[in-house]
Amino acid sequence: MSSAPPPRMSAPLEGPSSAPKRKTPTLLIIGIMLVGGCGVCAVLFAAILFPVFAEARKAAQSSRCMSNLRQIGISMEIYSGSNDDTLPIADKWMDAFSKAGGRPRQLHCPTVSNFRSSQYGFAFNKELSSKKTHQLDPSRELVFDSTLMSKNAVGSLSTLPLPGRHMRGGQTVNHILHMDGSVEARVAK
Fold first, then answer.
1. Among 103, 47, 37, 43, which Cα is nearest to 70's?
2. What is the DSSP string of 162-183?
3. Residue 108 or residue 16, greater confidence
4. Cα–Cα distance for residue pair 68/114, rounded to 1 Å
5. CA 74, 151, 172: angle at the middle one, nearest 5?
6. pLDDT tens-digit profile of 19-58?
7. Planar angle of CA 101, 102, 107, nearest 5 degrees
8. What gap in Å lies between CA 13 and CA 178, rounded to an integer?
9. Of 163, 182, 179, 160, which is closest to residue 171 (Cα–Cα)?
């Protein structure tokens, strides 16, 4: 049996010894670059999307406002049908809306306030108080965006907000419910 010779030891190096150089792991560098890059991308992404979200929110509020006015029109039609074809007394129009089955939330312009607020943002055309609906022009303005914020607000088109409360096609507009139930987005002048 032969035995293997013991391993040979190399002689120590003469002179000053230097500490071994540390290498930064490649994966750590890649990870730092990814995290930093993602952070920069997130900031850029947010800077691009926040204005888009703000515009989408305004468009949604405008659509909701028009929907609320349509519901008010339906309730006014139900009310007048149950009351000898007569519109409500102007300073009680929101109460009449509620009696006709309307929901309180629909009496608020969402651009102005939420439905728990005491600000409403709609006004009833004072000239139409207690009028017979069959005697009125179908294009006549019934309820509209207004600078008057109280419940049961009554006024004329002179109370339309300037600039308009909503945006449409790059212009400010106000929403107006007509006697025929249509809702107009009128450019503010």
1. 103
2. SS-SEEETTEEEEEEEETTS-E
3. 108
4. 12
5. 70
6. 666 666 777 777 777 777 777 777 777 777 777 788 888 8
7. 160
8. 100
9. 163
